[in-house]
Amino acid sequence: MEQFVMTFPVGNRQSEIHPPRVCGVVSSGNLEVLVESGEPGDSCRIDVHTPAEGFRDIWNAVLGDFVERHPVGGVNVTINDAGATPAVVSLRLDQAVELFRSEKP
Amino acid sequence: MNQLSENPASWDAQMRNSSARRERGAAFARGREVSAEDITRLLEAVIEPGDRVCIEGNNQKQADFLSRSLLKTDPSRVRDLHLLQSVLALPEHLDIIEQGQVSRVDFSFSGPQAGRLATLVEQGRIKIGAIHTYLELFARYFIDLTPKVALVAAQAADRDGNLYTGPNTEDTPAIVEATAFKNGIVIAQVNEVVDKLPRVDIPADWVDYFVKAPTPHYIEPLFTRDPAQITEIQILMAMIAIKGLYAEYGITRLNHGIGFDTAAIELLLPTYAADLGLKGKICTHWALNPHPTLIPAIEAGFVQSVHSFGSEVGMERYIAARPDIFFVGRDGSMRSNRAFSQVAGHYACDLFIGSTLQIDLAGNSSTATKGRISGFGGAPNMGSDARGRRHASPAWLRAGREARPHAAMPRGQKLVAQIVETSREHMQPAFVERLDAWDLAESAGMELPPVMIYGEDVTHIITEEGIAHLLRCETPEEREQAIRGVAGYTQVGLARDRRMVENLRDRGIVRYPQDLGIDKRMATRDLLAARSIKDLVLASGGLYNPPKHFRNW
């Protein structure tokens, strides 16, 4: 089990305040992503809980690309990973943040 | 025999040899009919040492009883055989090698026996002539690898020896035609002997013997994919394929490889593709086995015609009820034919799309792994540009223009797409600097690394990251970066030149879901037209009858 936090600066891109959204489930090869309003508007904070150790570089790349695709500030993301591939992590993050933003503030 | 060799003007030695074999065989047959008890002795009587023998082994239908009977023959009489058959699928196919009765084998695909075959080669117990594609092997049946004895499988025979193959005709016509008309002996196992056949697939005078097998021949339901196992990543890739490739080129004539990736595409036609207004504009004409996962698209009116290599267990009644779509005899059952469908896939389809295990930086694609000699069946013929093609179609012409924008002589090109997740389980990368095929070639003493589809033929790669239009690349460097650009978080993908990939994105060579206007929120299993085998049964109006082990209700 490994837990770490990555914070990505996104410039001044404060997102509107939306209700929190959860996407996915904690089952083998899958993950649960919680997106909620929180952090200061110029950064995106991602809290990762994963059973697989030793993949920090991959996480860094996957999460960095995610923030590049969706530069939202003032957002906390919590990931409960159950051994998902990078592909599944990316898809779930994209789905979660799009759901989060589609919800009326 | 001495007299023959002294007489160079003899032109019918093979024919007289066949007659002698039939005379020996007559002791064990009543006319053409042989009893199951006598079949081993018949085989000993008609097979000579050194014979080229084809044991019909298809993708699906297997001459399993004859194969087992061959195993019981006296190894001092039936020996030094040269096996030539498209698929080495049954354990018996390798048992006969292990018994020391076979000295050489030519084949196309060995799927389940690939590991054992590799071991026998390493031990020097068998020589492989060559690993062919189906069409190549059939072609050689008519040139320099004509079977002397063919052991084939059919559904039924009548008393005269006419054969009814039923929906799984597969390789039988090609094998029998080559053998029967070049002084060979054709022996068929049948499930039943009847007075009148529903239709004649092989006429009796091409058949020397038939035997009613104690149990019906084995058929593998090779093309059934349970929609319950399709993942959201596969759904996302299917969305990319439909919007980024099928719609982009207006592909109407195509062939799908086997697997969940292409099954997902089939199940998205009545939903995602229909919502995009693509009905009637894509996927109307197919060279395809009757995939159960195509049922919803057929029912939605997407599909106009399907020609099949073989049938699929459980699809018989559905096919019989849809003769406008499938090739069906006057008796109501499908007629498949692997040779013709392979030709159709090669020359009459504008797109082949299939999965793979490894792709290198030049786009060479292979499913070969060390310790397994498996071959590729039909994929290399489906997945290669048909350079002999001379008829035009919009998709083919557009691909040709994109691939050779500066060529003086206009010519089209076949679209060949590989669809693959960037990593398999345990983070096994699909993208590699060097294919395992090189190691396999070395360890098995092959003349060529076993490449399924050569990079020069691959026009597109689709992953969950996006689509790479390799045919639009102008240099090998661009091609490499386009591949890296969709290789995700594999080492190959992480080592991309980000600036160059961005440039390729600007030019529409690499396109990500957001570039294609794909909403990833839709990439859920709700988008599948059927989410289970039961859904497929319901979609077929109860006509599809899945094999037991696919029933979980």
Could you walk me through the main structural features you see in this protein, from its secondary elements to its overall organization?
The complex is a heterodimer of chains A (105) and B (553). Chain A contains 2 helices and 5 strands, in the order ββββαβα. Chain A has 105 residues and is an alpha+beta fold. Chain A has a single domain (2-102), classed as Ribosomal Protein S5, domain 2. Chain A has a 5-stranded mixed sheet, with helices on one face. In chain A, helix 1 (56-69) packs parallel to helix 2 (86-102). The longest helix of chain A has 17 residues, at 86-102. The radius of gyration of chain A is 13 Å and the shape is globular. Chain A starts with a strand and ends with a helix. The model of chain A has no long low-confidence stretch (mean pLDDT 90). The relative contact order of chain B is 0.11. Chain B has 2 domains: 15-219, Glutaconate Coenzyme A-transferase (3-Layer(aba) Sandwich), CATH 3.40.1080; 227-534, Glutaconate Coenzyme A-transferase (3-Layer(aba) Sandwich), CATH 3.40.1080.10. In chain B, strand 16 (358-359) and strand 17 (365-366) form a beta hairpin. Chain B contains 20 helices and 21 strands. Chain B is α/β, with parallel strands linked by helices and 553 residues long. At the A-B interface, helix 1 and helix 2 of A face helix 9 of B.
Percentage of residues in strands of chain B: 15-25%
- Helix- and strand-based class of chain A? alpha+beta
Q: Tell me the CATH superfamily of the largest domain in chain B.
A: Glutaconate Coenzyme A-transferase
The DSSP helix count of chain B reads 20
Strand content of chain A: 25-35%
N-to-C order of helices and strands of chain A: EEEEHEH
Largest sheet of chain B: 9 strands, mixed
